[in-house]
Amino acid sequence: MNNTSTTTLTMKREFNVKPEKVFDAWLNPVMMKKWFFTLEGTNKVAQNDPKVGGSWEIVDHRQGVDYRAIGEYVEINSPEKIVFTFKMPQFSELEDTITVELKELGQGSEMTFTQLIHVENEEQWTDADIVKALDEMRDGTEHGWNLMFMGLKELVETGKVSYQG
């Protein structure tokens, strides 16, 4: 039996630009390849079909390895909301669901990011093992998004990304 557990990661970020600009950075391949699971210098593929049922794909090349992230758009409501699936097939067949909600905040915008993270349970795991695995996955995922969101903020506010970690 394929047994999985789920945890939710929620993050909020503020930007000094209107929601439309942040929304665009999530869907425009020219912008995506500068921050979304990749950086311009390591990006090999950044493509998408931003409509419900349309798919997206990012391929990032690091230390001699290609990392591929793919998904499908579930909901697109400009400039307030994007819901899409996310999967890295080389690591897992499990698909996460990501929701990005944007609202205007004075001169800028606030983004609420929610990722439903699925973790495959090993057969011999105890409840404590499952909690530990979910916590580690959530913490690692949050760390990755923290770095990406620094790039996203810089991109929408200045037009470029200097972070190349």
Automatic annotation (TrEMBL):
Pfam families listed in its UniProt record: AHSA1
Chain coiled-coil ranges: none
Domain of life from the UniProt record: Bacteria
InterPro entries named in the record: ASHA1/2-like_C, START-like_dom_sf
SUPFAM superfamilies documented for this protein: Bet v1-like (SSF55961)
Gene3D superfamilies registered for this protein in UniProt: 3.30.530.20
All copies of domain Activator of Hsp90 ATPase homologue 1/2-like C-terminal, residue ranges: 17-157
Family: Belongs to the AHA1 family.
Protein name: ATPase
